[in-house]
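Supplementary Text 2. Reproducibility record for the structural model of the 185-residue chain.

All settings were left at their defaults, and a single model was retained for analysis rather than an ensemble. We include the record here because the model underlies the residue-level annotations in Supplementary Table 4.
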Amino acid sequence: MTTDNDERLLEIFKEHAILHGDFTLSSGLKTSYYFDGRMITLWPEGAYLIGRRIFRMLVEAGAEAVGGMTLGADPMVAAVAVVSHLEGKPIPAFIVRGEVKGHGTQKRIEGPLKAGARVAIVDDVITTGGSVLRAIETVEAEGCRVVKVVVLLDRQQGGADEIRRGGYDFSAILTADESGEVSLV
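Retained model, structure tokens:
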């Protein structure tokens, strides 16, 4: 069921997050369009709309924490944590580092993640699924169980299929076709 908030999220995504040109994605793939999710996830209204939408999905999935790979997931997990507090159903956030930091606590996962927790992994955009799979591998190594994977935008280039093949419950809020046209799921 599409809501007014979903329509608004699609509208601001189309206005602010789609760039055209020649780009190389983190997967190494070349593309003529780029989706800069941070233009939405770091914008107050976008963060709020995303936080509300993902919060509802995580409550349904029974997630006890939400996280993902830095940098794409950072503003999203913070938005979900704030919304969860406002809703009286706190879901703590965590961030998975690309590499263990060489100082301080030398953690790969930052934030209040408890071993054995039921967690959700989020990301702003999925193409091949590599960063989402790295986040899943990292939290599972800590004894956590991934109960939900949510992305803001699925480029429909195989990443969602990879996640589902792994047995994970995957959802996207928006999708893009091969020409870069974005729509609500």
